[in-house]
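anyone seen this seq b4? input:
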Amino acid sequence: MIPFDNFHMEEGIPIYQQILLYLKRGIVAGDFHDGDELPSRRMLSALLGVNPNTVQKAYRQLEEENLICSHTGSKSYMVLDTEKIAQIRAELLQSDVKSVVQSMKQMGLSKAEALRLIQAYWD
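predicted toks r here
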């Protein structure tokens, strides 16, 4: 079963989106695999201390993205292949890089300064 021990909620971001991001990052990192079982909606809502509708919204989004398979009265599990994993990775990287670049621009960094900073942290 997919653990949520390392899940930490952040203010300002809807919880269902945080659940999605947690699972997607775990997929890309190789922590979660095809066929891995997710906690039931009730179990996860109790574990996180959130409304069951919040978990339901996250799971519904995962179903719409074809990342999990759920059946009424049955367990939900991950449905992954290398193409889906690559797509998720590309989406997360694009979103994260775009956010960092916007922050750097807002702080007045030039492209050269930004690249030097990235290089310094890369090393």
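The longest helix spans residues 82-106. The beta strands are 68-69, 77-78. kinda curious what u guys think
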